[in-house]
Amino acid sequence: MMSPRVIDMVLLFCAVPLLWAAITDFKKRIIPDWTWIAIVLFGGTSAFLLSYPTLPQRIVGFLLPGVCLFILAIKYGGVGGGDIKLTAAMGFCFGLYGLTAILFFALPPAYLYAKATRQRSVPLAAFLCIGFFVYIGALYMLA
């Protein structure tokens, strides 16, 4: 088992680009490429430092949401390329189960925001950031 300090560092390093992506997506509706690239790099580094999530869980976490969102973007629109890349990067960094928990906490507020503002497209990075911090808080409460 890896020490909590290493896990804290990985989470902290992911929080910075995710916060930047959330702010720029909310203000300008664009997600800078460096944010999702940094998250993928942190995920790759943490794959060597941490035993969980396993590499297969990271790969599935990368491919499954990315492919699903890509299909939705082609069929219905409303999902931007930055959203797809950021979600896939988070899936690689946190694995499929971690990303599922983050989406569980992110999508209901995104839905409520879309209904309240009557928008078809929402700044998904902002809600992924909310889901990330709720997920991290839940991890610390359970630990």
Derived from helix and strand composition plus strand pairing, the structural class reads mainly alpha
Strand content: under 5%
Poorly predicted residue ranges: none
Alpha carbon gyration radius? 15 Å
Question: Residue share in helices?
Answer: over 70%
**What would the average pLDDT be, to the nearest integer?**
90
| Number of domains as seen in the coordinates | 1
Query: What oligomeric state do the depicted chains represent?
Result: single chain
Cα distance, first to last residue? Answer: 13 Å
Reading the helices and strands in chain order gives HHHHH
Sheet of most strands: none
Please provide the count of β strands: 0
Count of helix runs: 5
Shape: globular
Relevant terms:
mainly alpha; 143 residues; globular
Q: Which helices and strands appear, and what pairs or packs with what?
A:
Layout: H1 4-28, H2 33-49, H3 55-76, H4 81-117, H5 124-142
Helix pairs in contact: 1-2, 1-5, 2-4, 3-4, 4-5
